[in-house]
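Working notes for the structural subgroup meeting. M.R. asked for a predicted model of this chain before we commit to crystallization trials. I am recording the input and output together here so anyone reviewing the notebook later can reproduce the run.

Input as submitted:
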Amino acid sequence: MKTVILDAGTLGGDVDLSLFERFGEVGIFEKTAPDEVAERLRDADFAVLNKVKLNEKTVGDAPSLKLVLIAATGYDNVDTAFMKSRGVGVCNVAGYSTDSVSQLTVSMALALLTNLYEFNSFVRDGSYTKSGAANRLTPVYHEIAGMTWGIVGYGNIGRRVADAARALGCRVVAVKRTPEDGVERVTIDELCETADIISLHVPLNDGTRGMISRERIAKMKKSAVVINVARGAVADEAALCEAVSERRIGGIGVDVYSSEPFGEDSPYYAVKDDPRVLLTPHMAWGSYEARVRCVDEMVKNAESFLEGGKRSRIV
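Returned structure, recorded in token form:
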């Protein structure tokens, strides 16, 4: 059997990909362009990928392909209906990055609400030394205790963020389909109107695409901070950037984009130097521990498949 890893570079160079050798030959590619996918999968039994798009246009014949192992929880980059029609199994990895993503979510919120970027820059550029003053208290910041933290998507990550928010003294409200003891449920519109911090933790699908719309952004508090660690397209990116640039919201922290990496024509490029904007390169999921768990889980998914099981199967 042969396993082909199409974009090993997205997993980092410090995780052990030799674990896949237990299934036979392993072909490792740092990255794979769309027009290279078909050739690289031509004799593959297992395909391992993170960001590469697999669909009818890119896959080609791939006569030996039996299983797609996605190194992520989200799988919007794989045409699952097409894979099912070809009799190819698809597995994702759920829960491996909960601690990693929730850590960045909380870090972004605290950094933006405490104006850490501006205070740090004041010291780093020598202004503090030259000021002659022992301290600086502008821009003014406020304690997070007592604020309302709105969570859109109350899955594993949303729950972990909620725990941290409550520990910091926040009231937590959530957009959640089903009732649950101890969870204050609200509609997405109510959340946008009332929350001081809004963090997004939903998958990208027809129901979530564009849910943080221009109209909902207009309802937000002038001081609201929006954190998107879900998928870029769940928010109207242009509207979000316009709102922070025009000071109609307090700040944004974003780790995911509709086009990655975003180009110079992206609305994010125009606001990247704004101290109330914190942009990171889709790294929330990628702590070392999370990446090790991810690889281990993919190997277990492959073992289950070979034994006739359906561990983490999407199709």
